Give the backbone structure.
Amino acid sequence: MGSELRYEIGQNAYIKLVLHALKHRTSAVNGVLLGRLSGCGAVVEITESVPLFHSQIGLLPPLEIALLQIEEYYSDEGLSIVGYFHANERFDDFDLGGVAKNIGDHIYRYFPQVALLMLDNKKLEALHKGKDRSPVMQLYTRDSFKNWKQVGSDGSNRLVIKEPSANVLLLDYISSKKWQDMVDFDDHLDDINKDWLNPELFK
């Protein structure tokens, strides 16, 4: 993998992940990223995301069930799991924990260009104060020594949102409390009538 590999996340995939974290502010939450390699292998396009859990996020059996269902559904659309999203329980906790690394390692076996995205609460809190168009997330990738390293701390911009106005729309959804409508896989396992695909979220 060359150093020029970029990650481009679509607006809906991006907003869904942030709303999931906002709905469960006092819990750690996670999700998976779906997409494909494009641009002759130079870009990882993240076109969809699925919010996973907000309780006991490290439990393996429900995670395996979720990943199987997600892979089966999206393979028909030509998409595969290309990354993982994590938000820590504490607002000021920016450490990449064991659960995130383990799930990232699992995805790496099938997709070596895996992106691991971590919610940056400070950037999220500052959104309404400015016109920042960059994602409110930190990007981590796995290096040749099998360690997870934050990308972009040197000023490079390897993670971008496909639609420049995504943060404006996100702020609108936050002010209208759109996060209340969010359904994750936890909710679906509790009540199968709740759709983890969130088909009504952006209507």
User: Anything to note?
Assistant: The radius of gyration is 16 Å.
